[in-house]
Amino acid sequence: MTGPLRLVQVGAGGMGRAWLRTIAESPEVELAGLVDLDLDVARAALSDAGLHGVEVGRSTAEVADAVGADAVVNVTVPEAHLVVNEEALGAGYPVLCEKPAAPTVVTALIQAGIAELSGRLLMISQSRRYFASLRELRRQAEALGTIGTVSTEFFKAPHFGGFREEMPHVLLVDMAIHAFDAARFVIGAEPVSVYCEEYNPSWSWYAGAANAAAVFEFEGGTRYVYNGSWCAPGQETSWNGSWRVSAAEGTATWDGEGSPIVHRPDAGESVTVAAPPIREEIAGSLEAFVDALRTGAEPENSIRTNLRSLAMVEGAVASAETGARVRIDDVLERARETASAQTRRDDVREWLRGASIAR
Asked: CB count, 10 Å around CB of 53?
């Protein structure tokens, strides 16, 4: 592919508007079409973004075909991801989809099958991986030898109002996937099991549990410890949380905003390590997607590899509900069985029966 990639975006809501700005600012892509069930909302979003000459419609495939699109960006609500992604992939278009891939591992697995059978890329925008300092934290962790423990403390007190304050498992389901996915990235290995407890303090303004503490075992014996709260007023952490990596040759910390700090006992004082600049958050996701399409390389957040981040969330919820340690492979295997029974597509069912869920 040469020249800017022509994109069709699906979804013109709040997050959709952020994506419109990001696409407009990238020299690697151009917006050719915008799809939304409400055409007036789509036109207003384009006007606010200063974008003109963009095809507007309600059908992803029809708009993409009309404008000669190279790819689709799906910024709809998670419940709509399956329908939009299946239409786009079936019409031959690779897709960059907002996280989470789906509300459940079951639906994400069905989408993984559809993507595999279509021969087109489905990448999940796990955008918080694209912080320069997080990527530097991983580089420093790799240089410290075998990792023993990685921990994240996340303490915020947002008053969202609306659906979040009524959600069950609100912290685990709506926010923790960012930290869980980042932990996979930093550790460079895959989760094996999880034990989790969640609870709701007496002062919480959430209906569901706003606090959670989870311990994940990773391949090789590394432990990842997550301790979080969404009703913790005072001395709040950053939105990325506060991180510590304890390894054989030293420790690296990151406050979620500044540069990582590395301390090697044999080297004396702690050293702050500035990270080289990169395109961050959704701009980073978009850049990785474009690079994957141009090179043919599988990105780190393809649907196939992203499944285990979503499985970490479901495993933590299951552990909190049952009080038992939950194996991540068991989460994926149960999801595979359920997905095979639920899907209406024979080809996807056959793929699910024979697929190897990648580590």
From this structure: 7
